[in-house]
Design a protein that fits this description.
Layout (H helix, E strand, L loop, with lengths): L18 H6 L12 E5 L6 H15 L5 E7 L2 E2 L6 E2 L2 E6 L2 H11 L11 E4 H8 L31 E6 L2 E6 L7 E7 L6 E3 L6 E5 L2 E6 L4 E7 L3 E6 L5 E6 L5 H8 L18 E5 L5 E5 L18 E2 L5 E6 L3 E6 L4 E2 L5 E2 L5 E4 L15 E7 L7 E8 L4 E7 L2 E8 L5 E9 L6 E9 L7 E5 L3 E7 L7 E7 L19 E9 L9 E11 L3 E4 L5 E5 L8 E6 L4 H7 L7 E7 L5 E4 L5 E6 L9 E6 L4 E6 L3 E6 L9 H9 L1 H54 L32
Antiparallel strand pairs: 1-5, 1-6, 2-5, 3-4, 7-8, 7-43, 8-9, 10-11, 11-12, 12-13, 14-15, 15-16, 16-17, 18-19, 19-20, 20-21, 20-22, 23-24, 24-25, 25-26, 27-28, 28-29, 29-30, 31-32, 32-33, 33-34, 35-36, 36-37, 37-38, 39-40, 40-41, 41-42
Keywords: Initiation factor, Protein biosynthesis
Protein name: Translation initiation factor 3 subunit b
């Protein structure tokens, strides 16, 4: 194409050929799509009188997802019946396709009212699904892949329990042996970066990494699920393990997660722009999908609220979970929709803490599950007293309330079986110079919810229910020394206060009991107990002094030990006996195994630099095994699910216990003999290897001697070439026991 040449003037525009430029720079016609349109189904069918209000409500809901175009909301009508009625669905047009996708993700399943949950889909999807071929085509058959059983460890022929132990960078899983060192199942370096945690029923072991959390399980200990959440600090499961909650100090950033995952792995990022700035996530453990994220809790004036962990507490059925905004409200959510129950929080001015009843209670007459129950307390405000309230969920009906006065603080302790609630109330004396404790015990499922009151003269600093269904017994640690202990940065106190430990039991009115209620059984004075834990099977309890630099005491208590003394005196408290005492230098934690037969005390490097490791004890306080492990951090028993045996079956087992005991004693003896035989076999193998080596050396020496003689070498005199066998007796201390004789 020429505009000029050597002899002519420029050609006119009409004569110029622009075809090559038009071909090069042509702008293609953009295909208009409807990806920014969503279809909203399951809308209430209304007439003209209610149409405007419904449209206003729906527009307000969809504005949260993005900008709806002017005249972008269309709700078709049906006039075939002579009345103008909506058809139960609508079309919403957003400015961009991204906003439409955000509406689908956040509003699909949104509960509009009790009978209508919105179904939000892309208009393009609807169009695609309507064009499906009517001819059925069977999907390709996928090969069956058998999944490993997540509770396979319960089938162990010896009925052993497992525990996880974390030391240095090594995390291992072990079988507990009743009379020997634990048997290693699997151990890996750098298996976790922070800590290890079991799920409540023992199905999963989770390891914590900077990029998130991983679930492991099954006989092969393979990876079951991975949850991407950067810099997790805490993790918690719902009671039946369906849901997982994670919390990080770092607000969620989609770009930061993509950068951490690396190029090409952006599809593994579970977060969207709606999750930006949030810190708490709830996941489905079955699918590994993110169900919802939550922003940090803030007070009404916009400041960060100090909320303890777990932030969310679950109802025993897993149908509901809740958290508080301190001093303001209680938010109860439905797990099925991850949305607020009744679409709003409960306004509870001053609320400090709450707790769910930990068991679903069934009506003994009908067998139907009763409504779940939740308790919370509020402090005094002006002329208003402090208050403890019990409500049923989901109706939020107030079941029982009680006013309290001169309250410093309160703690809620549900019985593990859920029938009784103890509120440990610290109160001021009239002079306000000291404090004492009242125990307000609500019998939650009895008529009118009666309340038993126990008044102590000093302050209860620890409380624990015996975890047995047919027994309402508890133990408390109390003291009149309320001086806060001086702790180092890792949490170790220099000294422990002088304390007493008391045991109480509930006695119903009868021939020998004139007044129904909780009665004091026994008190042990002049102790330095800081923590106490009942055996999962009840009856036995350990009193311990933990995380102090000067006292490391342990007391093993049997509350039914001396039956003869209790029968003779008529006082059940005379049976309560300290059956053994011990100590563990540097003890920081202790925990029972699920059977209640063994207990471990641990000394963790997270708290101090002294001797690290663990000690395994039996329930009678006899030391079984001690492991000194430098860099030891954690030892956690693997939980067991609740027994499938009925109470009648359990009673029959106890009745036939001698028969079962003999069988298991034989098994233990065979295992011990097998271990001894294995040790002897190993010794014989080592001796045989040594003798073989010795014979090879003797043969080599004889060969070298003959060769030397043939070459003319003169050997030393026979007297100087004699071989001597030297025997040494070595004393090896197998066991050392120190006994003080008065």
């Amino acid at each position: 194409m020429a505009f000029y040449n050597a002899t002519n003037l420029p050609a006119s525009e009409a004569e110029i050929d622009f075809s090559d430029l038009e071909k090069k720079f042509v702008v293609p016609e953009q295909e208009e799509t409807l990806e920014n349109v969503v279809v909203v189904d399951n809308i209430p069918v209304v007439d003209e009188s209610k149409e405007a209000k419904l449209v206003q409500v729906l527009k307000k809901i969809f504005k949260k997802a993005g900008t709806v175009k002017a005249n972008g909301f269309h709700m078709p009508k049906d006039t075939s019946s002579g009345r103008s009625l909506s058809k139960g669905y609508a079309f919403v047009e957003f400015e961009t396709a991204q906003e439409a996708q955000a509406a689908i993700q956040t509003l699909n399943g949104f509960k509009l009212d009790k009978t209508h949950s919105l179904m939000v889909n892309s208009f393009m999807d609807v169009e695609r699904y309507t064009e499906v071929d009517d001819t059925y085509q069977a999907p390709p058959e996928e090969p069956y892949v058998e999944r490993e059983h997540l509770r396979s460890w319960l089938t162990d022929e010896y009925g052993r329990d497992q525990f996880a132990m974390y030391a240095h960078n090594e995390l291992g899983v072990y079988w507990n042996e009743s009379a020997q060192a634990p048997e290693s199942i699997l151990s890996r370096s750098n298996w976790t970066e922070r800590f290890v945690k079991w799920s409540p029923l023992g199905s999963f072991m989770c390891t914590i990494h900077y990029q998130g959390l991983v679930l492991w399980g099954g006989p092969s200990w393979k990876k079951l699920a991975r949850f991407v959440h950067l810099n997790i600090k805490m993790a918690d499961f719902s009671p039946s393990e369906r849901y997982l909650v994670t919390w990080s100090t770092d607000p969620i950033s989609v770009d930061a997660v993509n950068q951490r995952l690396g190029a090409g792995n952006e599809h593994q990022n579970p977060f969207t722009s709606d999750d930006e700035g949030h810190t708490v996530c709830i996941w489905d453990t079955h699918t590994g999908s993110l169900l919802r994220s939550f922003p940090p809790v803030k007070t009404e004036d916009g400041k960060a609220a100090n909320v303890g962990w777990p932030q969310f507490k679950w109802s025993p059925s897993e149908e509901y979970f809740a958290r508080i905004v301190p001093n303001a409200s209680l938010a109860i959510y439905e797990a099925s929709t991850m949305s607020l129950l009744d679409k709003k929080s409960m306004k509870v001015p001053g609320i400090q803490d709450f707790a769910w009843s930990p068991r679903v209670i069934y009506d003994p007459r009908t067998g139907a599950a009763r409504p779940e129950m939740l308790a919370y307390w509020t402090p005094e405000e002006g002329n208003l007293p402090a208050r403890v309230s019990l409500i049923s969920v989901p109706t939020k009906t107030l079941i029982r309330t009680k006013n309290l006065f001169n309250v410093f603080t309160a703690f809620l302790h549900w019985h593990p079986e859920g029938q009784v609630l103890c509120v440990r109330v610290q109160r001021f004396t009239k002079s306000k110079k000291s404090r004492y404790t009242n125990l307000e015990i609500f019998r939650a499922y009895e008529k009118d919810v009666p309340v038993d009151v126990i008044e102590l003269k000093d302050c209860a600093v620890a409380f624990d229910w015996e975890p047995v269904a047919d027994s309402w017994r508890f133990a408390i640690v109390h003291t009149d020394d309320l001086t806060p202990p001086i702790r180092n940065p890792s949490g170790m106190a220099s000294t422990a206060a002088n304390t007493s430990v008391s045991f109480y039991a509930f006695e119903r009115k009868g021939r020998l009991v004139k007044k129904e209620g909780f009665q004091l059984l026994k008190t042990f004075d002049r102790k330095k107990v800081t923590a106490l834990k009942w055996s999962p099977r009840g009856r036995h309890i350990v009193l311990a002094t933990i995380r102090t630099t000067s006292t490391y005491d342990l007391d093993f208590v049997d509350i039914e030990f001396d039956h003869a003394a209790a029968t003779k005196s008529g006082n059940a408290g005379d049976a309560v006996t300290i059956v053994a005492s011990g100590d563990h230098y540097g003890i920081t934690d202790f925990d029972w195994d699920p059977t209640g037969r063994f207990i471990t005390t641990t000394s963790s490097s997270w708290y101090h630099s002294a001797e690290h490791g663990y000690i395994l004890w039996d329930f009678k306080g006899e030391q079984i095994h001690k492991g000194i492990i430098e860099g030891f951090k954690q030892l956690l028993w693997r939980p067991r699910p609740r027994s499938l045996l009925t109470e009648e079956m359990k009673r029959q087992v106890r009745k036939d216990l001698k028969t079962y005991a003999k069988e298991f004693e034989d098994i233990d003896e065979r295992k011990l003999h097998a271990a001894d035989a294995e040790l002897m076999s190993q010794r014989r193998r080592l001796i045989s290897e040594w003798q073989t080596w010795r014979e090879q050396v003797d043969a080599q020496l004889a060969e070298e001697t003959d060769e030397a003689l043939q070459n003319g070498y003169i050997l030393p005199a026979a007297a100087d070439n004699q071989m001597f066998v030297v025997e040494e007796i070595v004393d090896d201390i197998i066991e050392e026991k120190e006994e003080i004789i008065n």
